[in-house]
Hints:
Oligomer: heterodimer
Shape of chain A: globular
Helix content of chain B: 25-40%
Largest sheet of chain B: 8 strands, mixed
Radius of gyration of chain B: 19 Å
Helix content of chain A: 40-55%
Strand content of chain B: 25-35%
Distance between the termini of chain A: 43 Å
Amino acid sequence: MTTYAAIQSSISGDNALPLRPESQVMDLERLGSFHQSRLSFMRTLVRRVFKERWKISPTTFDLDKDGYGTVIYDIKAANSNFSFVIFSNYLSDDERNDRVIATKWDLTMALVEGSVDGDYVEKLRENVPKQEAGRVDSRVFVLSRANRSARNFNYMIDCLANGQQPDIEKIAKVGYLYRTTAVYGSGKLGMADWEKVSTKHRDFARPFAGEMFVCMMLRNFSLLQVEHIAKQRQTDTYTPMDYDIKRYIGIGNSTGLGMAPYLVNHPVLISRWIEMRELALARIRTLGAIDSRIHYHLISLLNRCALHTKQTLTEDEWQTSNNTAVVGDLERLVEFADNGLSDWNTIIHFSEENCSLQGQEMLVSVLLELYPELVDELENFHCTDEFLDLDPLMPAARLKEIMATRYDWALAIDFKAPGAKETYWYRSQEKMEPRLGSISDVEGKKKQMALGVGYAVRKCFDQLSLYVEKNPTHSTARFLVAYPKVRGIVRRVQCMSRSKYGDIQANLLDQNVLPMHLLRCKLAFFGVSKFDPRSKLWVRNTMFQGAPLLEDIGSTFSDDWFMPLTPSV
Amino acid sequence: MNISMNELKAALRRCFEASGYFVGNYEDAANMVLWLEKHGLHGLRELQNTLPYVGEDLHKSLSNVIYEDSTSATIDAHGRSSLNCIASAVDLAHAKALESGIATVTVHNCHNRMFVLKALTDRGRSGISAAAYWKNGSDNITEHAAAIKSGHRYPSYSESSVQTVGNEDKQALTIICSSRVDVGLSLQDQDSTIISPQQVERNKNHCVEHGITICDKLWEDINVIGQGVLVENTERSRADAGGQ
């Protein structure tokens, strides 16, 4: 088994593999061009559930003919038992709102340690449907809610009740029955902290494993529920949903700015995820042998990605043009590969010179698919301690050197240029929702969140330069006693300079900043597909589309649901 | 009510940020309170005493070094809370210990010194042995000592009453750090209350499992102060979220 030490020696030092440089990878637009891969958290979760053959079954199924009521699943994972409790309540169309500020939803749900008795379910029923307005205890470790897709839900029921399968073209437009609008974990609303989950619940001791599991269960519940309602409506004509269509139904997701600060506030963790993805690519470039089977698989996946992208429908012009470019990129890559490949560097260089960023990163995801034996074990290294420890002994002069080299991108930004500090990030009084404002709002600007890492580096560097001139032998600790206001950024710079990839290289205060890139980066690590931006601030997407179903657990398992295609039923 | 550690930390960050603590310091301050509470050392009780004055540091001078040599330093905190200055004093002791083997930093005019335990404990994780000593109170005076060994995760803590007191600064704290020797420190008084590293670890395990119990009023007070970082909700503000 690969050890942490072996991973580290592959990333840095004499025996390091040729990882892509941070100036290339950490560019915000490139991060926003990432796609799902076999290291994405949905993929790693599904692999674990299916390989370990978790036993998941509803122990309480109490839905009325319209699908309202309570369902409780018992989950026997490899190490422990858990319960997934879901409440389905009536919601009128005009109350349905995907924003975080909503107060009612069609479905609310909780993932709980152990079995739940009647009293505990009542306690959950009192609180889970209220979401942010409720409280739960530390047995609960994920809470979520979801709203019906107005376009698909009733249509699907009508079809099945009348003995028909849904029209694939209609399903392809919206590949889900429910959209989840928030998935909470990590101690929110009284839930168990990550420290408890990561030490006690080994089945979910990977980043966002619990959260992804809840989305997976929601997807399976949605299929169960529409079939139940359709059957109740017309028992004599009802037909179950075709298996391939079921596989194609995912869970919708609506993600807004709330996700963006996470990437800035968890730099060590994000850097680790990127390290594993880049290490996988470097392993493939160095160790990945190319034979006829691999070559065939490559062409087949490139074609599949092109078709998947063509089947991705969005009204957003920017995303549409990106998708068109990606399809063209993939066609060029197929043509290039058809002429024969002796190593991976050649096609990667070709992509860097001839393809869009999204096309280049699609190729990376495809290459990862080809070598599970080089890639999959890296999923065990996605966790890391997030200590931002200060190195107090570091000479202040050395700190200045580090800033000048590792943060050259920040020092290259002209913060005096018009618009360079036009944007500020803040939390609203309304559910503390993160929002993006203009500095013309003078009062609001005073309460801005500290997300402008580049600007903070610039200010610190200027103070440090003067200090080092006067005190060339002083330590960082001594500098910080004199300049306590820069403690946060100094600690961050020191800590991130010890990682391979470091900070996201972008001025998040610029008037033209596209938060969409931050959202997409994190969503790609989750493993979503079908990005459908609704503005530069929020995006719809699809989770678990193409994934195997609960009923498949225990049968043969093919981990090949990358970039799923419309079923040909 | 019961809250998670993460909720407490997030609320405290907002609270200290709204009180004018700098970036880096408000995270430290939140972690110091949480650490004490998580490890059974009454962080919330300490905070309750601190909270009425939490905004006052904004108007006080920044800490400054008034004496320094290779193995020691004296810092004047100008009446600031240790939440808002002690981490950098411990960092300085740490740096000097690495340079000289052992170092002492004395901080004068500093309140709420119990919060130093988190910063001390971090030294243990960094391979430094660290200890702190201070006295507290004006009528009923107590003395306090905390120490952690190099490479250890949990400190020891002892507290006892003091019958007589000299004219020394009642708001002083002495920090000792060493990269060469274990500076284990415990009070000599036989009646002192001693909390062992093992007990500290047990307290932590209980908190990780069950979360934190906090009185409703204190929780409300923390959150009310923290509202100072939130921007008023307006139609314009709603549009800033990219509303649907």
